[in-house]
C-alpha cells in the first residue's frame, strides 16, 4: 500500500517536471498583463516570466498593456497544442491584433519562429479600428488583406492557418530534455520609419499596396515604425487623367537583419523618385532623377487626351542610360538593389 502510494507520488512528480517551459519576455517600455490558461500574470517592462505547462496542454496566450482602457478588444493570440510527439504553435490574428508577438522555439534546430512584428495598428482599415476614449487606435479587428501583407508569417485566415501553424518535433530535444522551451516575446513596436515627401508642385496620390494617401504639394507624410514589411510605393498626380499607366516603383523589403530597396522602372516611369536611408552613413541612395518622359521612345509613350506624354513603358536602353542607378532590366536588378543593415528608416522623395 505504502509503496504503491509512494510510486504514484513519484510518477506524478516526473510528469510535472517533464512539462513544457514557456518563457515570456516583455520587450516593451510598458508593462503587460498576460492571460495564459485563464490565469493573469503581470510582466514588467523588459522582463521575463517563466511558466511550466503540461505536456499535452492546449490553449492560447494574449496580453494587453497594463492600464489599458480597452481590455476586451481584439488581441493578438499565440495558440499552442502540445503533445508527446509534436507541438504546434502559431501567432494568430484571426481574432484581431493589438500587440506584436514573436514565438521562438529553443533547444531545437528544426523548429521555426512564428511572428507578427509589424505595427498593424498604423495600417488598420478605418472600419476595423478599435480606439480608446482619446482616439488612439489600440486594436484592429481581423483584416486579412492588410494583415497577410504586413505579417506574412502569422495566421490571418484559413489558408495561412495551414501554412503558418508551426509544428515542432525535434527528436533530440524530446529525447534529451523532454521539454521544449518556447520563448514568447511581446515586442515593442519599434521598427523603421518611412517618410514620403512630395516635391512636386501638384498634390500626389501615393499608393502603398492597398492603402492610398493624398500628399499635398511640398509636404511630407510619415508612416510609423514598420517591421518585417515589404511592398511597393507608387505615386500619381491627384488630377491625373490616365490612372492605369506606367508608374515608377519604390520597392522596399524591411527585415530584422537587412533591408533591400530600389527604384524600379520595370513597370515603366511616370515620376522622378529617390529613396534615401536615414540614420546610416554607409548605405547608398537609389534614384531616378532624369525626366524620362521627354526622352521616351515614341512606341513606349503613354499620352493623355491633350497628347502630353504622362508615362513611359519600360524601355531599358533609354532608361538605363538616363537612370543608371535604377532597376530597368534583369541585369540591373542585381546591380541596383541596395542593401542596408543599419538604417533607422527611409526617406522617399517624389521630385
Ligand atoms: C536556449 O537554449 C540554450 C541551450 O539549451 C540555453 O543556453 C538558453 O538559455 C536558452 N534560451 C532561453 C531563452 O531559454
Ligand atoms: C495632360 O497632362 C498634362 C501634363 O501633366 C496636363 O498639364 C494636362 O492638363 C493633361 N490633360 C488633361 C486633359 O488632363
Ligand atoms: C552604420 O554603419 C556605419 C559603418 O560602420 C557607421 O559609420 C554608422 O555610424 C552606422 N550607423 C548607425 C545608425 O548605426
Ligand atoms: C553598413 O555598416 C553596417 C554596420 O557596420 C554593416 O553591417 C553593413 O553591411 C554596411 N552596409 C553596407 C551597404 O556597406
CATH superfamily descriptor of the largest domain: Thaumatin
How many individual β-strands? 26
Under CATH at level 1, the class of the largest domain stands as Mainly Beta
Q: How are the strands ordered across the major sheet?
A: 3-2-5-6-7-12
- Amino-to-carboxy terminus distance: 87 Å
CATH topology of the largest domain: Thaumatin
Radius of gyration from the CA trace? 25 Å
What is the share of helical residues? 10-25%
Categorize the overall geometry.
elongated
Tell me the domain tally: 2
- The assigned structural class equals alpha+beta
Mean pLDDT, as a whole number?
84
Q: What kind of sheet is the major sheet?
A: 6 strands, antiparallel
Beta-strand residue percentage:
35-45%
Bound molecules: 2-acetamido-2-deoxy-beta-D-glucopyranose
- Give start-end ranges of low-pLDDT stretches: 1-17, 171-179
Describe this structure in words.
- It holds the Pfam family Thaumatin.
- This is Thaumatin-like protein.
- It is a single chain.
- The protein has about 350 residues and is α+β, with helices and mostly antiparallel strands.
- The chain has two domains: about 10-180, Thaumatin (Sandwich); about 195-350, Thaumatin, CATH 2.60.110.10.
- The chain is about 15% helix and about 40% strand.
- The protein is elongated, with a radius of gyration of 25 Å.
- The model is unreliable at about 1-15 and about 170-180 (pLDDT under 50).
- The structure holds 2-acetamido-2-deoxy-beta-D-glucopyranose (NAG) (4 copies).
Amino acid at each position: 500500500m505504502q509503496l504503491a502510494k509512494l510510486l504514484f507520488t513519484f510518477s506524478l512528480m516526473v510528469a510535472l517536471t517533464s512539462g513544457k517551459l514557456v518563457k515570456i519576455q516583455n520587450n516593451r517600455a510598458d508593462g503587460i498583463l498576460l492571460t495564459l490558461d485563464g490565469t493573469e500574470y503581470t510582466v514588467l517592462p523588459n522582463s521575463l516570466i517563466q511558466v511550466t505547462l503540461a505536456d499535452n496542454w492546449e490553449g492560447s496566450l494574449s496580453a494587453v498593456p497594463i492600464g489599458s482602457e480597452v481590455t476586451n478588444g481584439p488581441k493578438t493570440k499565440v495558440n499552442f497544442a502540445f503533445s508527446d510527439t509534436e507541438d504546434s504553435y502559431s501567432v494568430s490574428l484571426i481574432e484581431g491584433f493589438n500587440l506584436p508577438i514573436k514565438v521562438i522555439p529553443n533547444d531545437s534546430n528544426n523548429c521555426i519562429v512564428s511572428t507578427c512584428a509589424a505595427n498593424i495598428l498604423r495600417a488598420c482599415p478605418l472600419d476595423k479600428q478599435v480606439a480608446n476614449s482619446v482616439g488612439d487606435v489600440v486594436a484592429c479587428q481581423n483584416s486579412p488583406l492588410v494583415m497577410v501583407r504586413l505579417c506574412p508569417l502569422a495566421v490571418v485566415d484559413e489558408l495561412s492557418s495551414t501554412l503558418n501553424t508551426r509544428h515542432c518535433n525535434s527528436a533530440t530535444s524530446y529525447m534529451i530534455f523532454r521539454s521544449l522551451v518556447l520563448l514568447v516575446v511581446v515586442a515593442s513596436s519599434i521598427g523603421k520609419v518611412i517618410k514620403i515627401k512630395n516635391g512636386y508642385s501638384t498634390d500626389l496620390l501615393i499608393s502603398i499596396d492597398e492603402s492610398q494617401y493624398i500628399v499635398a504639394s511640398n509636404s511630407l507624410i510619415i508612416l510609423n515604425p514598420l517591421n518585417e514589411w515589404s511592398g511597393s510605393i507608387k505615386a500619381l498626380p491627384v488630377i491625373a487623367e490616365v490612372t492605369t499607366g506606367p508608374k515608377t516603383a519604390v520597392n522596399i523589403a524591411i527585415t530584422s537583419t537587412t533591408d533591400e530597396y530600389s527604384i524600379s522602372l520595370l513597370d515603366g516611369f511616370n515620376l522622378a523618385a529617390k529613396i534615401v536611408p536615414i540614420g546610416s552613413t554607409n548605405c547608398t541612395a537609389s534614384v531616378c532623377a532624369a525626366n524620362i518622359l521627354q526622352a521616351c521612345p515614341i512606341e513606349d509613350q503613354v499620352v493623355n487626351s491633350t497628347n502630353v506624354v504622362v508615362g513611359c513603358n519600360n524601355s531599358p536602353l533609354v532608361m538605363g542610360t538616363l537612370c543608371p542607378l535604377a532597376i530597368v532590366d534583369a541585369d540591373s536588378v542585381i546591380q541596383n538593389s541596395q542593401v542596408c543593415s543599419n538604417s533607422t528608416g527611409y526617406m522617399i522623395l517624389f521630385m
